[in-house]
UniProtKB/TrEMBL annotation:
The keyword Magnesium does not apply. It is a multi-pass membrane protein. Keywords: Cell membrane, Membrane, Transmembrane, Transmembrane helix. GO terms for cellular component: plasma membrane. It comes from the Eukaryota. Belongs to the Casparian strip membrane proteins (CASP) family. It is found in: Cell membrane. The gene is LOC110756567. This is CASP-like protein. The keyword rRNA-binding does not apply.
């Protein structure tokens, strides 16, 4: 009988560089929307200003971004150490951590998209360039968080390939 072996798509060293690149890209894709979210302010009636923390879905998205940044920076450091030492490290932490973070980023992105659409429906009646600029920036932040989710999803798939090798 032929033994069942998991064949990697990349050579060992290349896959570690791909993982490191995806982790760095994820960090960048999370820092930019956080900056957009914090700086995007909408002026309402009677000189009232609305910030992201005035809306619960945006707060959830911001929290998921901050948690994602922390995890991504941690895992980037771990990936660099693994490249230098040429070891696999804690594969279960990678596997479960990537699953949890990708789910968190997916739900954060969806919360942002839903909140932006709701605000656009509510305040979109006043067709002004100011509102359109706010909505464009909000959708850009939501989309970048979604792209970060895609990167973490790819990382979770790559980390799942390492499990049969270890266990």
């Amino acid at each position: 009988m032929e033994s069942q072996r998991q064949v990697s798509v990349f050579p060992k060293k290349t896959s570690r560089f791909v993982i490191l690149g995806l982790r760095v890209l994820t960090t960048i894709l999370l820092v930019v929307p956080l900056a957009i979210l914090v700086s995007n302010v909408l002026s309402g009636n009677r000189d009232k200003k609305y910030h992201f923390y005035d809306f619960v879905p945006y707060r959830y998205m911001a929290a998921s971004i901050v948690i994602g940044i922390a995890y991504s920076i941690f895992q980037t450091g771990v990936a660099v150490v693994r490249l230098r030492r040429e070891n696999h490290g804690n594969i279960l932490l990678d596997f479960f951590g990537d699953k949890v973070i990708s789910t968190l980023l997916a739900t954060g992105s969806v919360a942002g998209f839903v909140m932006t659409a709701q605000l656009q429906k509510q305040w979109g009646e006043a067709v002004s360039d100011y509102y359109h600029k706010y909505f464009k920036r909000s959708y850009a932040a939501d989309g970048l968080v979604f792209l970060a989710f895609v990167c973490t999803f790819i990382l979770s798939v790559l980390s799942s390939y390492a499990l049969p090798k270890k266990f």
